[in-house]
Prior knowledge:
Low-confidence stretches: none
Shape: elongated
Bound molecules: adenosine-5'-diphosphate
Mean pLDDT: 90
Radius of gyration: 40 Å
Amino acid sequence: MKQDWRGALVRRLLLLVGGCLLLGLISGEYAWALVIGLGTYLGWTLKQLLRLHRWLQEHQPGEAPPDGYGLWGEVFDSIYHLERRNERARGRLQAVIDRVQESTAALKDAVIMLDRDGNLEWWNRAAETLLGLQTPQDSGQSISNLVRDPRFKDYFERENYLEPLDLPSPVNSRVQLQIHVTQYGNSEHLMLVRDVTRLHQLEQMRKDFVANVSHELRTPLTVIAGYLETLLDNVEEVNPRWLRPLQQMQQQGARMQNLLNDLLLLARLEATDYPADRTPVAVDLLLLSIKNDAQALSGPRQHRISLEADPHLRLKGSEAELRSAFSNLVFNAVKYSPDEGRIDIRWWGDEQGAHLTVQDNGPGIEAKHLPRLTERFYRVDSSRASATGGTGLGLAIVKHVLLRHRARLDIASTLGQGSTFTCHFPSTQAVRRAK
Ligand code: ADP
């Protein structure tokens, strides 16, 4: 097609030049004839160009271009078809956008698009009901000005969105929201907010149930344990054959008491998000007393426990909670490492924050168990746990206490070579005392 037009153009020009030469032959003024011929052609071309320009500037959508002649006519038509094609594609895209917007607007979950600085760009209707965003006044506002909970500000600024954040709604504190943030494109944010009030209520019921049952079982168990102790003290008078069963009953009773205590502690930890206490704790002294307890627990098994702790580094938080978390880690190391095993406890600080490491040279844990280790009642090997009298709640308590102190637990272990449990506390939790 292109080739055709080029040929026609060349033919037309040759014809024009031929005509001019003929005119020159007749008039004897070749130069003038050529100037006049080419000038006329140039004038005509410019006129077509002007028509095209005017049409491009002034035409209404869908208005056909003016008629053109020759190659110009072809150019007019091509531009017109191109424009029609673009219009159709734009229409299709607009329809897709409209459908997406309609469907997201109808969603029960809130969808909010934020720019890289966290300013609102677009949101659906559910965002207005769940978060109280106002259309269009809030457009361009920073999301942390509208959702004022400090936990949200923290979460948003930390830019670690692997886990969702649960918060009460700023509009109605009885509505519980779950917030997911995803980064996309040029560090923009997509925020999804779900109403999880029902789930939250069920979860609360579960927590209350466990806490109530544990609490209710404590008194009868204390009575049974008391009688067992009295019976054991006087077993010779009752019947010596009862000695072993009574001893086993006492052992299992003690296990149940430990279990109930751990369940109650977990229930208490779950009741609030952060410990009420935020006074700096002298971790070195705390670890020293835990080390002494661990040495006593080890007793004749003679573990070699070393402690290296920075005395100037303190930690904001609850001493009782930290004691139970740290002692769980150290006592596990004693329980699960062989006699005379080495256990190293280290407490130190760096730019990232404060860290506690408990390292043992015990049996280690297979990699497939590591992600599930902090689940309640998760045991690597039930025979190992029953031999040590563990409740299966120790690491769940550690995880909860650390969560409440904004810290995380890292577990590294190689089967047969030992395990290393490290608690990482952010620098906001650490306090460095002048030397
Ligand atoms: P338990 O009360 O049974 O000790 P935990 O929650 O404290 O429960 O630990 C869960 C499981 O993790 C334990 O059953 C044990 O198999 C494993 N574990 C914990 N600490 C260690 C350790 N230092 N070395 C080897 N295994 C460990």
